[in-house]
User: Fold this.
Amino acid sequence: MSIQWFPGHMHKARKEMAKVLPEIDVILEVLDARIPWSSENPMLAEIAKQKPVLRVLTKSDLADPATTEEWLEFLASDEQRDALAISTQEPNKYKEIPARLKALEPATQSVRLKSRVAMVVGIPNVGKSTLINKLTGKVVAKTGNEPAITKRQQLIVLNDSWNLRDTPGVLWPKVENPASGFRLAATGAVRDTAMDSAEVASHLLDHLCVTYGDALRARYGSDLPIQDSVETLETIGRKRGCLGAGALVDFDRAGRLLLQEFRDGLLGGITLETPTMRLNEIRETEERLAKATAKKEARKERKAQERAANRARKNAAKR
Assistant:
């Protein structure tokens, strides 16, 4: 799935993040607990280099608790990496963040500021602004249930020891793993107008029918078919009255309904990927890209050989 949504302010934000990195002591990377891998911005690895990272999994109340525990163990990989799951339903969890930052802080002080600085980064609509407001105990960052609310960086005082540098939600120009693209769309990381709701809902059902079939039937009826995602979506649409001309199911309406109920947590705690899936999909993506690169190089070589052969024929004709 190719996401065609990379506004100009995101490109600007990436450049500004790279510019201020020398002042940053710790990266506070905010991830969606339902898609911890797909919500991890690969551009950050390029620009953050060896900075310590605290990964905070937001919306954990919407995720599968058992899978969240798997992710926390996977993400806290070494002494420069830590991970914590939070949700607005458990406000005390936010109080752990300053201590987690302190445990990761490097030995040197920030270049320009007396207080240490944690850069808060994450994709759109992942909950960065809500996290900052909870940490500071006041509304200092604008929030909203849609992507691209924060448009520019701002420096926020957390306490006597720490400042937070809030950054806009940043996507990357090209999602190489198609499954990640669909997951980003399903969780609302991109505007709904940038995707086909029925297609995204069908892809979501590919996972739900296999892993969370009981949750689907608890929500939409015990007779819900879960062998085929298109049939499942059609049945949900018919049950919920998403009908168009000729009493045919309007798949777009049905898709939007399913996506909204998933995002609202009405299907229960659901996680769309596991650490094992991450490793498998990375391997598959690398193999696919390697094959594509090999084919491209082979085409270039064939064209070069054709040009050389044409030149040889022209030269022979002249002689």
User: Anything to note?
Assistant: The radius of gyration is 24 Å. Residues 144-151 have pLDDT under 50 and may be disordered. Strands lie at 26-32, 53-58, 81-85, 116-122, 154-157, 162-166.
